[in-house]
Automatic annotation (TrEMBL):
Classification via Gene3D superfamilies: Ribonuclease Inhibitor
Sequence ranges assigned to domain Disease resistance R13L4/SHOC-2-like LRR in this UniProt record: 2-292
UniProt keyword annotations, A-Z: Repeat
Organism taxonomic ancestry: Eukaryota, Viridiplantae, Streptophyta, Embryophyta, Tracheophyta
Repeat found in the keyword field: yes
UniProt protein name: Putative leucine-rich repeat domain, L domain-containing protein
Organism whose genome encodes this protein: Rosa chinensis (China rose)
Pfam family, one: LRR_14
InterPro entries on file: LRR_dom_sf, LRR_R13L4/SHOC2-like
Amino acid sequence: MRTLTLLDSSITTISPGSIMQMKCLRTLNFSGNKLNEVPKEIGELIHLRYMDLSWNRVLKELPDAVCDLCNLQTLVLEWCGQLEKLPKAMGKLINLKHLYGDDDEALKLGDLGIMDQLHGRLSIRYLGNKDDASEIEKAQLGNKEHLSHLRVFFQEGDEEQRKGDEEIVKALQPHQNLESLDIWWCQFTESLYWIKSLRNLRKLYLYGWRFCEFLPSLGKLPSLEILDIREMKKVKKVGVEFLGIEEEEEQVSGILFPKLKRLSFESMENWEEWAFVSEITIMPRLSELRIESCPKLKALRTLTITALRTLTISDCRILEGEYEKGVGKEWHNISHIPNLTIG
């Protein structure tokens, strides 16, 4: 037998004897049962590639023998709300590519330390505790060359509470192969210096950086195609720092945001000015621009918008007046765009 699947069967135990009779098993799926324990004999299934124990809500721990599954590639532990901890030697699972778990105490970031074969998406939530920077350093994200998508959620809190975030941000540095990055409620753009090394980054989502006054430097990311920025409530000006230029007088060659196709700003309630440098080619491939809930933004006229195919301006009182169809002072600059939504 190579595959054993028993779904939603109210099973409470796995017989050690039955495991010993299935040593050639490749796939084991006990999702949706009522397991309260997994026997240590599970470690005998050395050929196992896939194990799904999700939705076993009363499962409290896994035996250390799980770490002997040297060929295991996928481990699914989602919705195991009572799972208190994982075995200490999880790092022995050197072939593990996909690990699915929930935001509980069972899975520690440090457990990922030598799991360098992890593929796909990694979500890290509720960062902000004093030990988080150390745990992230142990995780060695910079060695996870097969991770394509990283999502990071900091704890919400006031400015004083978030002073410890700086060391966490520094420790987060992922491998340069990363293609998609989401960062929620971060407060230290200065510590994101490593973002410039993400040469393969295609999608970037930045949400809820409530205490940051300036956007990070992103203009020199060569592969960035989608950029979504929301709820930066202290940002008043988006200027040359956003482009990746240190000083306004700095001479820059080449193209900034060379592959950017979709750009979105939302809920930037104090944003007033968008300043570019006219001598530099910026966003030549931009086809979609969306600006919503930015009531103080005064103009887009410093942005080259001739390549746009879609423009959305919503809940932006000043801009809506400037670009009102037929009568706005700037209407002639956008009237050629095929897909327009104003107001």
